[in-house]
């Protein structure tokens, strides 16, 4: 459903794509939050205060922790559809915070338009006595007429989509980009099924059982979240080699919040050994966004190693 606003026609037109999330949620009598509100209720008086017209399009109404890659692609397709109108100055996506960084990066990977796309959401529900959504929506609407590329407007900050991550579960300034902006090399959209790509978190003394299970479950890609600068154990190195022999792409990232993967350690399980076994370093991309990139590359039949080197 698409709904126009009533702000004067001389004002810029911003398409607002809604997906659900906390920003669209209210708390029921049992104390459980669920996405219940439509886009017009979310935009409210923000458009008039910012001085823009809005056209609301509901793509989804879900908790963002449930989003599949196919669901996130629905958001991308809806944004692309909104941008087919030359009168649209930019797009705002209202999104849950749990997977906002993944959808933002999927949008960034497939955004090749000079007009901005700005994602926002909220930490507090719409019926909270002190909601954070109104200020975030206003900031996003302003950025949608002045920023470039795909951005995240949240808690008073405007952050690039590539490299953004949720840094706190409840703080109103929930997002950060600890490594700054990352290189942008857009991918052409394709029409193909999304492959299974799993994320495996490393820990001291880890064996290869989890990686072997991913391969057995039909994964076409695995993101390994290593320790430190991207290290594991000899057993994990052997499991990476088995996965690569089975035709499964393995990408190596780190559980450390900031800094790149550095494949310099050897001695059986270090990053150098993982790379020798076939793992591709993710650079500065962390696990969530590395999974999005790996899935998009596998879906498109693109070169995994070269693409991560160019973007990470």
Any chance you could write out the topology, listing elements then pairs?
Layout: E1 2-4, E2 13-20, E3 25-27, E4 33-35, H1 39-43, H2 46-50, E5 53-62, H3 69-82, E6 88-94, H4 100-109, E7 117-120, H5 133-143, E8 150-154, E9 157-160, E10 165-166, E11 175-176, E12 197-201, H6 209-216, E13 221-226, H7 234-245, E14 249-254, H8 271-276, E15 280-281, H9 287-300, H10 304-311
Parallel strand pairs: 2-5, 2-6, 6-7, 7-8, 12-13, 13-14, 14-15
Antiparallel strand pairs: 1-5, 3-4, 8-9, 10-11
Helix pairs in contact: 3-4, 4-9, 6-7
Description:
α3 crosses α4, α4 runs parallel beside α9 and α6 runs parallel beside α7. Strands 1-5-2-6-7-8-9 form a seven-stranded mixed beta sheet. The chain has a four-stranded parallel beta sheet with strand order 12-13-14-15, with helices on both faces. The chain has a two-stranded antiparallel sheet with strand order 3-4. The model has no long low-confidence stretch (mean pLDDT 95). The chain has two domains: 175 residues, Rossmann fold; 115 residues, Rossmann fold. With 312 residues, the chain is α/β, with parallel strands linked by helices. The chain is elongated and about 65 Å long. The protein is built from ten helices and 15 strands. The longest helix has 14 residues. It starts with a strand and ends with a helix. 30% of the residues lie in helices and 22% in strands.
